[in-house]
C-alpha cells in the first residue's frame, strides 16, 4: 500500500449561490485545486466526486460523467460516491485508495451540492434517513437530532446553554473565514431566542441549506515534493457504518460509527486523541458537534457539554474544533462538506489559515457523518 | 498492488418484482453470494453497492447505510457508487481497488435497482443524460440511441434486420437463463413488427424496466483457494469517461469510453480481443450491442452488423456475446447490471452455466455503459 499526500485544495464560497449552477460550482472548485497543486488538468488520472442527491436537487444523476464532459477531464475514470452528508468523506477515502492501490497516480477528490434550486429541500434531505421507517412517518432531520439532544440532556445533565455554545464557537471562528456562508458572530442569547425547529433545537442550532463545492488533489507521498514544498500527508483513512434508523440503536447518545471509524483511524495512524492538534467535526446540529468531541475520544462520554462551556474546543483551547466555522457557520452543501473539512485541515497544517490559524498545528483530523450516523468517515493528516 | 479474485457470486431473478422491496432484493443477493463463497457475513470487511437512482425510484439515498443496517453488516464501511447504468461496474471496480490496495481483505460488491415502484420511470432514467442540454429538451434514452442507430445505418449500411438480430440472439440465450426477466425466444419479424419507440428503434430493440440485484465476493487472489476450488481471477479492471451529452461527440457511431476502457483493460491483462472467449456487453438498446462488438475490438468499425448477421456473436460463434441473455432478455435493473454481468462470466468460467454454457470458456469480459457512453467499465476475468 502506497502512502498518499494532498498537494492541492480548494473550496468555493458556500452560500445561497443563485448565480452559479451545479456545474459552475464543481468546475470552479476543480480548477482552483489544480492551480493550488501546481499541476495541469491533463496530469489527473481519475476523479471521485461526493454528492448526496443531485438526482433530487437538480434532477441529474451520472454527475461524474457530466463533470468529466463539462471540464474536459474525459477520458479519465470518474465516479460519484454517496453516503448522504458523508459523501465528501467517502470521495476522499476512495481517492486515497485509488492512489494507495497503484491504480492511479494523481486523483482529484471533490464534493458538490446545489441545494437551493428546489422550493423545499426537506424531502431530499430526508432521504438520508430510513425512508420507510422514518421519513415517510414525518420525521425530519432536526427532529431526529432533537431526540438525541433531549436524551443527552436527560442522561448527562447537558444544558441548553452548552448546546448553544457549539454554535457560538463555530460562528466566532467562521467570522474569520471569508469562504463561510455566515461569517458573523452570534451570542448564546441569540441561539436561545431563535425560532424553535424541533424542541430543544432552535434555528441557530441547525446548519443551513447551502450551495458549494470543494476539491483536493492526491498523489503518492513519495512524489509530493515534486509539486509542492508543503505536502500534507494522509496518516489514516477510516470509515464505519451504523444503523440508518435511530430506533435500531442501543442508545441515542453515542454515534457508534464515529467511535468505530475514529478508533480505526487512531490505530492506522499510531496516534491517540491527545496527539490531534485540531479537528473539523460534523456539527450539522449543535448536539452532533457535542457528541463528536465525546465519540472521537477527546472527552469522556457525557462530559462534552461542560468541556465546551469551559473553552476546550475554542481555537486556543486544548482541542480546537472547527476553526473553519464548521457546518453551522461555513455552511453545509451536503456532498462538499467532507472535502471542505479536509481543505481546512490542509490550510491549517500549511499555516495558511489567516486569522483563524491554530498555532503550531501539525496533526489534524476530519469527522464527516451521513444521516444520523449511518455512516462516519474519519481522516487524520499531518505536515 | 495485490491481485484479486472472485470467490462467490449471485443474482436475484430479474423482473417486475412487485412482492419484493428494494431492501429485500439487495439482502437476497448478498446472502446468496455469501453462501456461494462459503464465508460468513462477519468475514466481510467492506461493501460497495452500485445503484443509479434509489433517490428518484424509491426516495432513498444513503442506501449503503440502509443495507448495512438491514443486513447487520454494520460497522463495516459501506459505500454507494454511481455512474448511471454503469454503477454496478464501478461498484465492482472500487471493490477490486479496496482489496488491491490492502485496505480491505474481503469485500462484497453488489448492485441493485428497484424501478417498478414509480408510475413512470422515464424521468428518473433521463437523469443519466445531460439534464439541461438533453433531458429538459424532451430527449429520452431511446431517442438518443435511435440517433446513433440511424447514423450507423447511414454511414455503414447497417440494416434494420441486423439490429434486430442483436435482440434475437440475446433472447435465444436468455431463454436458457432461469434468472432472466424474459426467458423466451423472439424472431426477427417480431422485432420488426413491435411498436415503434424512437425511429428506427422498436420495443424489442429496447431493454426492459426491471427490479433486481446481484453481488460478488472479492478477496486477495493468494487467499482465494482457502474458500473455493474454482476462484475466478480479475485480470483487468478499467474505466473511462466520455461526454455525457451526445452533441459533444466527434461522431455518433463510436463510443469513445468503450474504446478507452477496453484498450486499457487489454493492456492491463496483457491480452488482445482474440484471447477473449466470451463477453457480456451492454445492449441497453440493440444498437449498443452492435457498437460494443466494434468498439471492444472484435470486428472493424462498421462491420458489426454483418458479423452479427453471420453468427459471430452466437454461443457457438467466434466471440459469444451475452450468453446470459444480456440486458434485453435478462433484464436491466440499472445498478445491478454490471454486477450481474460479472456473475454470468464467473458461472461460465466455472463451467456452471447449464444450457447456455460456452464450451471451454477460460477468459471472459464484461462491458458496462452509463448513459449513452458517458461512462464505460470493462473487466477481464480468467479461471
From TrEMBL, chains A, B:
It holds the Pfam family Thiolase_N. It comes from the Archaea. Residues 239-383 form the Thiolase C-terminal domain. The lineage of its organism: Archaea, Methanobacteriati, Methanobacteriota, Methanomada group, Methanobacteria. One of its GO terms (biological process) is isoprenoid biosynthetic process. Keywords: Acyltransferase, Isoprene biosynthesis, Transferase. Its EC number is 2.3.1.9. It comes from Methanobacterium bryantii. InterPro entries: Thiolase, Thiolase-like, Thiolase_C_2, Thiolase_N. PANTHER family: ACETYL-COA C-ACETYLTRANSFERASE, ACETYL-COA C-ACYLTRANSFERASE. This is Acetyl-CoA acetyltransferase. Residues 4-221 form the Thiolase N-terminal domain. GO terms for molecular function: acetyl-CoA C-acetyltransferase activity.
Amino acid at each position: 500500500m502506497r502512502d498518499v499526500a494532498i498537494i492541492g485544495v480548494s473550496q468555493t464560497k458556500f452560500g445561497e449561490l443563485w448565480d452559479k449552477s451545479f456545474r459552475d460550482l464543481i468546475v470552479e472548485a476543480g480548477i482552483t485545486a489544480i492551480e493550488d497543486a501546481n499541476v495541469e488538468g491533463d496530469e489527473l488520472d481519475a476523479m471521485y466526486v461526493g454528492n448526496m442527491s443531485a438526482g433530487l436537487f437538480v434532477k441529474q444523476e451520472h454527475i461524474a460523467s457530466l463533470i468529466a464532459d463539462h471540464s474536459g477531464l474525459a477520458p479519465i475514470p470518474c465516479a460519484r460516491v454517496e453516503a448522504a452528508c458523508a459523501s465528501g468523506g467517502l470521495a476522499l477515502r476512495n481517492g486515497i485508495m485509488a492512489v494507495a492501490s497503484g491504480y492511479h497516480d494523481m486523483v482529484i477528490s471533490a464534493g458538490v451540492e446545489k441545494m437551493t434550486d428546489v422550493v423545499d429541500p426537506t424531502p431530499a434531505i430526508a432521504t438520508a434517513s430510513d425512508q420507510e421507517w422514518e421519513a415517510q412517518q414525518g420525521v425530519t432531520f432536526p427532529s431526529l437530532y432533537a431526540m438525541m439532544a433531549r436524551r443527552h440532556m436527560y442522561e448527562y445533565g447537558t444544558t441548553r446553554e452548552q448546546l448553544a455554545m457549539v454554535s457560538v464557537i463555530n460562528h466566532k471562528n467562521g467570522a474569520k473565514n471569508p469562504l463561510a456562508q455566515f461569517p458573523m458572530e452570534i451570542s448564546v442569547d441569540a441561539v436561545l431566542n431563535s425560532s424553535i425547529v424541533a424542541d430543544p433545537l432552535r434555528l441557530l442550532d441547525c446548519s443551513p441549506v447551502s450551495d458549494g463545492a470543494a476539491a483536493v488533489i492526491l498523489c503518492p507521498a513519495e512524489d509530493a515534493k515534486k509539486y509542492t514544498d508543503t505536502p500534507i500527508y494522509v496518516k489514516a483513512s477510516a470509515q464505519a457504518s451504523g444503523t440508518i434508523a435511530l430506533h435500531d440503536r442501543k442508545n441515542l447518545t453515542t454515534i457508534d460509527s464515529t467511535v468505530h471509524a475514529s478508533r480505526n483511524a487512531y490505530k492506522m495512524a499510531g496516534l491517540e486523541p491527545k496527539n490531534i492538534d485540531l479537528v473539523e467535526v460534523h456539527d450539522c446540529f449543535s448536539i452532533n458537534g457535542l457528541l463528536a468531541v465525546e465519540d472521537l475520544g477527546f472527552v469522556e462520554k457525557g462530559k462534552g457539554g461542560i468541556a465546551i462551556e469551559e473553552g476546550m474546543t475554542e481555537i486556543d483551547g486544548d482541542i480546537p474544533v472547527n476553526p473553519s466555522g464548521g457546518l453551522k457557520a461555513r455552511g453545509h452543501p451536503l456532498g462538499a462538506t467532507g472535502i471542505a473539512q479536509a481543505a481546512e485541515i490542509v490550510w491549517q497544517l500549511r499555516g495558511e489559515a489567516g486569522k483563524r490559524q491554530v498555532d503550531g498545528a501539525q496533526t489534524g483530523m476530519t469527522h464527516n457523518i451521513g444521516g444520523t450516523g449511518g455512516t462516519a468517515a474519519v481522516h487524520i493528516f499531518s505536515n
